[in-house]
Amino acid sequence: MKQVVIASTNPVKINAVKAALAQIFADDAFEFIGAKSESGVSDQPMSMAETKCGAVNRIRYCRQHYPAADFYVAIEAGVERFDYGAATCAYIVISDNVRLSVGRSAELPIPLHIFEQLSPNIELGTVLDKLFQTENIKQKGGAMSLLTHGNASRQGVYQQAVILAMAPFLQPDLFL
């Protein structure tokens, strides 16, 4: 049985990793551990650089606290204002203690008036909960679901990103 440490206790992130690995390794058995971990960045990362740093830090934290795992997976969501507008996406970092794979989820445009309400201490989920009168949307469909009328979900987008970030582990001879 392979042990996978997911650097989060958020059910959306845990379920995305479970579904991705079940799809990739249909014949394997896994033990999944959702672990609180330290990102070392703001509650709401405000740049892609900060977002990636948070995911890498979560991997480091989990490797220190769960040294025997087969895989470590971190999903860190963040926002940034680009020249074309504001958007949110997540960095996916996966490690097996030998290699480190870094990937990103699809980007979701977010309205500028929503982005302008965010800060390192005020998360996108909090602003969206207030605007859409939802509760804890980040542990449900997320901004992805709210802004696409349910045609995309946070879990689905993260699941795809985890599958893509697994490429170096699935084709190790090509990623030397």
Automatic annotation (TrEMBL):
- Note describing how the cofactor binds: Binds 1 divalent metal cation per subunit; can use either Mg(2+) or Mn(2+).
Classify the source by domain of life: Bacteria
Annotated substrate binding lies at S8, T9, N10, P11, V12, K13
Pfam families in the record, alphabetically?
A: NTPase_I-T
UniProt xrefs under InterPro entries: ITPase-like_fam, Non_canon_purine_NTPase, NTPase/PRRC1, YjjX_NTPase
Keyword list (alphabetical) reads: Hydrolase, Magnesium, Manganese, Metal-binding, Nucleotide metabolism, Nucleotide-binding
Q: Name one GO biological process term.
A: thiamine metabolic process
Question: Cofactors per UniProt?
Answer: Mn(2+); Mg(2+)
Q: Which residues form the Non-canonical purine NTP phosphatase/PRRC1 domain?
A: 7-170
- Write down the chemical reaction(s) this protein catalyses: ITP + H2O = IDP + phosphate + H(+); XTP + H2O = XDP + phosphate + H(+)
Molecular function terms from GO: ITPase activity; metal ion binding; nucleotide binding
- Please state the Enzyme Commission number of this protein: 3.6.1.73
- SUPFAM superfamilies documented for this protein: ITPase-like
Report residues binding Mg(2+): E38
Q: How does it assemble?
A: Homodimer.
Q: What does this protein do?
A: Phosphatase that hydrolyzes non-canonical purine nucleotides such as XTP and ITP to their respective diphosphate derivatives. Probably excludes non-canonical purines from DNA/RNA precursor pool, thus preventing their incorporation into DNA/RNA and avoiding chromosomal lesions.
- Report the sequence similarity comment from the record: Belongs to the YjjX NTPase family.
PANTHER family on file: NON-CANONICAL PURINE NTP PHOSPHATASE_PRRC1 DOMAIN-CONTAINING PROTEIN, PTHR34699
* This protein's name: Inosine/xanthosine triphosphatase
